[in-house]
């Protein structure tokens, strides 16, 4: 993962300061940080237009936008969109899973690519980015330069509290292996969504979490929700930030009090120990099955 230059960090800090100055510090400090869990997204994912619309409405409400949503699905980007869909400039870039096509009489118009709807995690991150586009359009925050606007839209997802989702979507690495006749087969994939990149998104998310007063246990909890590379960058940034240095971001709003995470009870500790033991047993069983399968193939 590429590291940030001093110039990169300066741009991120200045851009975030400008957004907070224009829209206030309360959302940055107080909006619920949405997590990739059923508690935040309880709706069943059916990989169709209705599911994307439900997701869009949930994210619009989270962003404080009293707007409805309309979703059109396409096979390969908006070149196939029907006449009349969308008003004004859209946010679509080639290869994206979703895009924002404007606001028409209180309805946000979105497009989504059919072939990418089975990736529920990816579409959630993509739609969080598109809702940030809608937020910037609604509040007249957009800039003329398209590439800069895309980067600012990623930054706005942090401000709105959807930064865990978009930080995860910025880079995902998956690896798997299977045993087939003739030996082991390994597979891996790299997926990227967004424009700032994982280092910048992790840096912004860490600034937000530290500014909110998260103590070390809470920082570790958030890190566990992140992809491996982003979690490492997030933890490193949290450890390096001196919280008082973030005060100028807030435009005069005082930093909130530090959080104090309650110590786990004896019951919670016992449950955690049981879970660890069960995981250890499961891993041992899987390792044994794998070894037996390999012996059978070799034999």
Low-confidence stretches: 80-88
Strand order of the largest sheet: 1-3-2
The overall pLDDT, averaged over residues, is 86
Strand content: 5-15%
Shape: globular
| Beta strand count | 5
Distance between the termini: 42 Å
Number of helices: 10
Largest sheet: 3 strands, mixed
Alpha-beta content class: alpha+beta
Structural Rg: 22 Å
Domains (count): 2
Query: Into which percent range does the helicity of residues fall?
Result: 40-55%
Order of helices and strands: HHHEEEHHHEEHHHH
Structural overview:
With 299 residues, the protein is an alpha+beta fold. It has 2 domains: 6-250, no CATH class; 265-299. The protein contains 10 helices and 5 strands; from the N terminus they run αααβββαααββαααα. It has helices at 6-23, 26-30, 49-62, 120-138, 146-160, 163-169, 198-211, 216-224, 228-240, 266-298; strands at residues 68-74, 98-104, 107-113, 172-180, 183-191. The protein has a 3-stranded mixed sheet with strand order 1-3-2, covered by helices on one side. A hairpin with a 2-residue loop joins β2 and β3 (107-113). α3 crosses α4, α5 (146-160) packs parallel to α7 and α7 crosses α9. The radius of gyration is 22 Å and the shape is globular. The model is unreliable at 80-88 (pLDDT under 50).
